[in-house]
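Sequence only, no structure available. Ideas?
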Amino acid sequence: MGFVDLHVHSNASDGTFSPSQVVELAKNAGLDAIALTDHDTTAGVDEALEAAHHLNIEVIPGIEVSSSFDGTEIHILGLFVDPDDPVLAAKGNCRFCNLCSKHAQSASLTACQQHCNTFFFVEHN
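Reply:
I predicted one. Tokens follow.
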């Protein structure tokens, strides 16, 4: 049985090390797999995947989506995402901006759509 860490950040968001350094550190720590889940971006995934190929460790492409619900900040982990997905790429460019959160909460999505060109709908029951 191997060891994994499914919530790892690089300097593509608020981490200290580059994606390739994160992979190397994980390998040196004895992990068999990690999920690179930077805040609101998949920008580091390609670099991490390339490093993993050379180090014989699995990298799961991921993201940690920042959001809010009823005025409370929440983070949602996405695993096995497509780092080239145009929705994630567009969101990463604006880093899930506060403008979008504000307009999504007020149900006035026109400004958000014009600013980001795309948005997510998450249903809550």
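Helices lie at 19-28, 45-55, 86-94, 98-105, 110-116.
Hope that gets you unstuck.
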